[in-house]
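User: I'm new to structure prediction. If I give you an amino acid sequence, what do you actually give back? Let's try with this one:
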Amino acid sequence: MSYRKILGILLVVSIMLLCIGLVIMRVPKFNVGDLPFSTGKPLVFGMFPLVVTIIIILACQKYIFDTWKWFALILIPTLSWFVISTPTLCQSIICFDRDMTAWYASISFLIVSLIVVMTKTLLLRRKKI
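Assistant: Good question. You get back a string of structure tokens that encode the predicted 3D arrangement of the chain. For your 129 residues, that looks like this:
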């Protein structure tokens, strides 16, 4: 399967999960207990940077996708584990709840992904010159 098909499938799944997170957060009849805060916001925070990154990588070459793929295979499960393992709400003074952890994890994923894409793009341009 070509890398553009893989990225297309990832993009469709990410947009679907982003929409599911928005529905869980916004529709009042889904407000059962702590569900919108424990599920909806981390889905939205996690999927938005992934959608942006996939759209950027669609415009890049296969070499950049292969490098990003190995990076993402390690970082996405690790950051997901951190988000899942944090408490939903925290009562102490210095504490990370699930929303804050999801926010920091998604921003760090986006920043590191952009750094990987930019460095590989610059290396490819230097080799061509």
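You can read the tokens as a compact description of the fold. Here is one thing that stands out. Residues 18 and 48 are 7 Å apart (CA to CA).
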